[in-house]
Design brief:
InterPro entries: FAD-bd, FAD/NAD-bd_sf, Flavin-dep_Halogenase_NPB. The protein has 545 residues and is α/β, with parallel strands linked by helices. It is built from 16 helices and 20 strands.
């Protein structure tokens, strides 16, 4: 009897962002649950240069704050993000003379720039204080899975090495959160390529990049209140790429170049010196800022092909994958922590069901289908879209569309705790399917528009805080809705997307009457034709174009 391996309710492989947040969510839901987290790195991990994925958006920020109860840490140790901001600054040093997309003031729902080293060190300590067993420098050597229904006594087995000794543990559930190493993905042959071959290079500089100081134009500086553009996730954009600037509370700044290899090959930027030469040509103001600070470089890395899918992430056989161990989309719009939040919520629900003795088969399959549906819907925002990123006429419209879809549908499901509400999902099946279909067609239409647009780049700020319905859509995430209110909210979002699609077609065809919207127009009722709308009823603001 003394040789029987210890039994845990859940063993989580990987103690990074996905694994630690899952452990904490499980503990909040099931206080008596026995969780072991195995992390291969030594703690504390380094600040500033631990991992990329520093920018959060609304779902991820809400998950950390409200679902996990980490709001105090976010407000005291991390930086509140000043939204997302874009500059069409390719080849330019006069940033005050190009089109800027962004908000002039904070919107209602906060998000954060997160130093992953600071955050993951905090999470490891906090998880242990909440009763999670956390073992650092643990190398997983073997995982044996068993099949079984809820009433089966069979358990999985994990063998790991720690401080020179080998340990064996049994587990009712195993969750792979070990990132791109993908232990279960490799074991079960779940890896899946997608059609988004973009690459990224990134580095950290031990200094602030104060984009607000890139111009001494007082009027330009005073467009924002506070005058703190540096706190935004700043995007410097051009055809086929975008450059991120993300500040870290440790005092460093994260810089990344994300590109379509058909337009900007990885070989042109896969070392720091090459990246600097590339920046000198495409984003010279950033080059000017960084060139004297080369000695402050903290790290440099790249992914050749960062985006991938996964055949299955949740199983009724009591295993799951979460975070980058499962799938990864694209860093544009910072969806990484959102998908951790969504995945962890499904895993938590399945484990809670199992602990109640309920059968998991149908529910695990449905959750897996839903999660892949969210992945597919979001992938459409990126795939084949990089060529239009340098278009100052089309990208601002795309950003409004993409956030209307995100805040109006997916974020509503998460904020109002409806991800696992299958009755609401069933009631909304037709609306959600049509939203998904319209999104695919709008993205295709945006590509066609950009092929013919004039790409005018005037010195204006397209201020999203001054679009009343857009700011209200963000605020509405904080509403407290009953089931009927929630169903009405999603149906309202469905109609809003239809009207916005009409206006996008009208905006494009005003300049380009021959631009065809065919299949998309067929989904939009004649009564919602944007051409029949009065100016006061329109959603897209007037622009200078």
């Amino acid at each position: 009897m003394g040789n029987t391996p210890p039994l845990h309710d859940v063993v989580i492989l990987g103690g990074g962002l996905a694994g630690l947040t899952l452990a904490m969510q499980l503990k909040r839901r099931e206080p008596d649950i026995n969780i072991l987290v195995l992390e291969r790195r030594a703690h504390p991990v380094p600040e500033a240069i631990h991992k990329i994925g520093e920018s959060s958006v609304e779902i991820g920020a809400h998950y950390f704050d409200k679902v996990l109860g980490l709001g105090e840490h976010l407000r005291e140790r991390q930086l509140r993000k000043f939204g997302f901001r874009f500059f069409f600054s390719e080849g330019r040093r006069d940033i005050d003379q190009v089109t800027e997309i962004g908000a002039s003031r904070h919107l209602s729902v906060p998000s954060y720039q997160i130093d992953r080293g600071i955050f993951e060190n905090f999470l490891a300590i906090e998880a242990q204080e909440r009763g999670v067993r956390f073992v650092e420098t643990a190398m997983v050597r073997q995982v044996e899975l068993t099949n079984g229904e809820p009433d089966s006594p069979a358990t999985h087995q994990v063998v790991y090495e720690h401080q020179g000794a080998q340990h064996t543990v049994n587990a009712r559930w195993i969750v792979d959160a070990c990132g791109r190493a993908g232990l279960l993905k490799r074991k079960l042959n779940l890896a899946e390529l997608n059609d988004h071959p973009a690459h990224a290079v990134w580095f950290r500089i031990k200094d602030r990049i104060h984009i607000d100081g890139w111009s001494d134009n007082t009027a330009w500086r005073e467009r924002c209140d506070p005058q703190a553009r540096w706190l935004s996730t700043n995007h410097l954009v051009g055809a086929g790429y975008w450059v991120w600037l993300i500040p870290l509370s440790s005092g460093s700044h994260s810089v990344g170049i994300v590109a379509d290899p058909a337009i900007h090959p990885l070989a042109t930027m896969d070392t720091f010196d090459k990246a600097m030469t590339w920046l000198e040509q495409y984003q010279p103001l950033l080059f000017d800022e960084l060139d004297p600070k080369r000695d402050l470089l903290q790290d440099f890395a790249f992914f050749k092909r960062f985006s991938y899918g996964c055949k299955q992430v949740f199983s009724a056989d009591r295993w799951a994958l979460t975070g980058e161990a499962g799938l990864f989309l694209d860093p544009f719009y910072s969806p990484g922590s959102d998908f951790i939040a969504i995945s962890n919520t499904y895993v938590t629900e399945l484990i809670a069901m199992d602990r109640r003795g309920e059968r998991l088969g149908a529910r695990a399959q449905i959750f897996d289908q839903l999660f892949h549906s969210f992945y597919d819907s979001t992938m459409v925002l990126y795939q084949d879209q990089y060529p239009l990123f340098g278009d100052p006429e089309v990208l601002p419209v795309k950003v409004i569309w993409d956030y209307t879809y995100y805040w109006g549908v997916l974020a509503q499901f998460f904020f109002h705790q409806r991800l696992t509400d299958l009755s609401s999902l069933a009631a909304l099946r037709s609306e959600l399917a049509e939203c998904q279909q319209i999104n695919v067609l709008v993205q295709a239409f945006l590509r066609q528009w950009s092929l013919v647009s004039q790409k005018r780049n005037p010195a204006v700020m397209l201020d999203q805080a001054e679009i009343p319905w857009f700011a209200e859509l963000n605020r509405s995430l904080n509403d407290d809705l009953d089931t009927e209110g929630f169903l009405a909210r999603i149906r309202e979002s469905h109609l809003r997307l239809k009207q916005l699609a009409c206006e996008i077609i009208l905006r494009a065809q005003t300049d380009h009457p021959d631009l065809q919207a065919g299949e998309l127009t067929a989904l939009l009722p004649a009564t919602a034709d944007a051409g029949s709308l009065s100016n006061s009823a329109r959603m897209l603001p007037e622009t200078v174009f």
